[in-house]
Design goal:
single chain; alpha/beta; 16 helices; 10 strands; 39% helix
């Protein structure tokens, strides 16, 4: 692999072309951080605020970052041709091994939001050896029922596309208050994302099937994510129910569940500092960045992260992922924290 792929790339995959942006150079045998955005967004709209956060620089100097844009969603994308068959969610996941191989990454730590979280989870289920860890924001592991699907279709007939997508991204409170963030994103989704292409991605996301995963012992031949996972959702976010259900399907010994207060629908935009600290802890729990300073959270751990009981109320837990897997003889190691 060349010393540095830094910049924009178009990667040909079995299911079409992908726009990929690389930041930095590979660092030894460390995994790449690979991001996948939500529907209605692209890597810039979804992740710029998060990755430009001052504390995030401490992480990115240790890892190469690979931002993936879903087909036709990047800023300035050409309109996809009439009759173009947009890749299914399974196919979108199936494009990623080509990206990993193209840049010579041995493995990745994925950060996905909404549709991107679903795609990365699917990728990890099919190609577990390529994924060392996942940070999944606003993941909904369930397919759409026909009533939901019909409601989405009806909404699409009566509203402009950005207004159809916004309730998927933001909390009801944010939409009702029409916050500056909502206004800004309504404008940017309308002006910087090709609306025809977005409609295709939106339709495909709303046609998704259930993620076929279940906690070991709950069903015959249960299959779930094998890598460490950090689930993240904002308080009162539209995805809250789905994330809670996803938590119930994952291995409690390597799952962290982070519910973030006062963060609305997109915590990486509204609370980038808090999310960065949680991500540092997550990476440390995987054995990376042992000497990284835990700036804000280290100074006031108990104030910033309140240990809470898990969904089954089995015990109260420590605040770090690594703590949650050491010296604990209880039934579950899932950690739920509110911050």
């Amino acid at each position: 692999m060349p010393e540095c792929w830094d910049g924009e790339h178009d990667v040909e995959t079995p299911y079409g072309m992908l726009h990929v942006v690389i930041r930095g150079a590979p660092k030894g045998n460390k995994p790449a951080i690979l991001t996948y955005h939500d529907v209605g967004l692209n890597h810039k709209l979804c992740f710029n605020t998060f990755f430009n956060n001052e504390d995030m620089q401490e992480i990115t100097k240790h890892f190469v970052v690979c931002h993936v844009d879903a087909p036709g969603q990047q800023i300035g994308a050409s309109q996809l041709p009439q009759g173009y068959q947009y890749p299914t969610m399974d196919q979108l996941a199936g494009m990623l091994p080509t990206v990993v191989q193209h840049f010579g990454f041995k493995s990745i730590v994925g950060i996905g939001v909404g549709a991107g979280a679903y795609i990365l989870a699917k990728f990890a289920l099919i190609f577990p050896d390529l994924v060392e860890g996942l940070v999944l924001l606003n993941i909904d592991p369930n397919g759409k029922g026909w009533i939901d699907w019909a409601a989405t279709k009806l909404s699409g007939l009566t509203s402009a596309l950005p207004d159809t997508v916004l309730p998927h991204l933001f909390s009801q409170e944010e939409l009702m208050n029409n916050t500056e963030l909502v206004q800004s994103y309504r404008q940017q989704i309308n002006n910087t994302v090709n609306q025809f292409n977005l409609q295709l991605f939106w339709n495909m996301y709303n046609s998704r099937r259930d993620l076929e995963m279940n906690r070991s012992g709950t069903v015959l031949n249960a299959k779930t994510l094998k890598c460490p996972v950090m689930l993240v959702v904002g308080d009162n976010a539209p995805a809250e129910e789905g994330v809670v259900e996803c938590n119930s399907k994952l291995d409690p010994t390597n799952t962290t569940f982070l519910k973030m207060a006062d963060s609305g629908g997109l915590p990486q935009l509204t609370q980038p500092g808090k999310l960065t600290e949680a991500f540092k802890y997550f990476l440390q729990g995987m054995g990376y960045m042992p000497s990284a300073s835990m700036t804000r959270l280290a100074r006031s751990r108990t104030a910033s992260l309140t240990s809470a009981s898990s969904m089954d109320g089995s015990r109260s837990r420590a605040c770090t992922h690594s703590d949650s897997t050491e010296g604990v003889g209880t039934v579950t190691h899932t950690m739920e924290v509110s911050c």
